[in-house]
Amino acid sequence: MLFRSFGKMKSFIQKIGVDAYFVVMVLIAISLPFSKFTLSVFQFALLIIWICDGVDWKLKKSLPVSNDRSFAIFYGLHTGFLLLRGNFVKKFTDFLKNPVAVAMASLYLLHVAGLLTTNNFDYAMKDLRVKLPLLFFPVVMSTMPRFTAIKTRILLGFFVAAVLTGTMISLWAYLQKDFKDIREISLFISSVRFSLMVAFVFFILWFELLEPKRWGVRTKFILFLLTIWLVMYLILLESVIGLVGIVIISGVLLMREALKNQKIIIKVLAVSLFTVMISALGWYTYSAVEELTYRPKLDISKLDKYSRLGNAYRHDTLNFGVEDGRYVGIYFTEKELSEAWNKRSSYDFYGKDEAGQLIMYTVIRYLTSADLRKDADGVAALSAEDIRFIEKGIANKRYVDSPGLKNRISKIITGYEQFTGLNNPNGSSVMQRVEHIKASMFLIKENFWIGVGTGDMPDSFQSAYNKIQSRLNPEVRWRSHNQYLSMLIAFGIFGLIWFIFTLVYPFISSKGFLQSAFLSFWVIMLLSMLSEDTLETQIGVTLFAFFFSFFALSVNRKPARV
Fold first, then answer.
1. CA dist 26 to 147, 152, 556, Å?
2. Entry pTM
């Protein structure tokens, strides 16, 4: 019975093997915007399919005759081992013959080599486990059948549907208004990683929209509306990297079109559109900064000196800065304000809000943004919802009522003023990153050639923050927030060079510049690594390794859009 089952298993596996591979690949793509757990489950399923695929389950015609069950089990296991061993040898031979796959997988081997200079092996093992997709996907996809154009489009279609669903769920979360930071509306994964997926999906839909004969007018109109929605969603999410990525990639694609197209009118049009896009982005940023930093002329002598309750106002135009073009420090009576606040909230006026900020400053900034005075009447004018927003650490009414890119610019400006005025980088992600860069430069100077190793990054950064006497709070003493700097710190200058090689060689060798979707994804990833440690989280490294391997190793290499 045991031996007969092998014969049945053979036909079954051969029948479903390739289809099962495709289905699991689709499930991995769907899981990326939603679930780390299902992502792990489906990667394990992919491993099982890969192990079984290509095994020659045929047995010798003459098998040992024995009624001994233990012998049968032993012989079955032994035969299975021999079959799998032969399959593994073939697969790894095929893998080693594929220079693109080897180059991609070598990024993981770089992390293994980093163990030579590592002291913290506990963190090193954890890091190697998180980064397994860097090895797993190149090996699997280089030894499995390539996808047809139809299957490629189906997989990308399911990914698009998953990301669009994620944006709808985020919209629902925003409408509930139950968040401290707008980025919290990305409920399942980091807003940064999700914004990368949204930007990628934007281009997938745009390329479908540009196909002349693939869709009818009605469908193309729907696709156009979806691209508009994705841009609006990135604005809602205040995703600078997502929006800048769309602008830059659009510019890259326009320049590519200008270079390859022989018609002068197309070249001129492409360059003109690129110029308009850059100019529009520059103008918007400049006008927003001008508006947000505008300091109106003010004659303090003409301002009211006392509140309605008879308390003297403080009018300070120097130490509190401006909020939306309004001076934060005018019409401020501290004692009256504190008493009024403490009557409406259980959060002490001189304590901290849920974001860890001094609640006094959150209160006066919020009142300023609502064009209210910093006194009892100002507090009385706040709704219960406003009070709750302040308790959460939301310092500007517009952050909830009118989310958008301007709010992101406003937060950067406020953080900068806080940093320069109080030498306090906490509370501003941009100013925190300045401290991250300072610590990174310190580590690079001391470990330029060989780096600190795979497992010593956290300990090294904590030591660096202490040595440079950083004022960052312990909970935000993070790594570089720049993947290139992280690689330089971990593996030294030669490690950084190899990292860049693993990014560029597979793309060039597989002619990714001819595949619009691949080009878009590649540029998005490279841009994200300038402001994030993209490969240091499970979602980030899986997103990169999955689609990078998919386009380089699984998609047929044709110059057509895919």
1. 12, 10, 17
2. 0.83
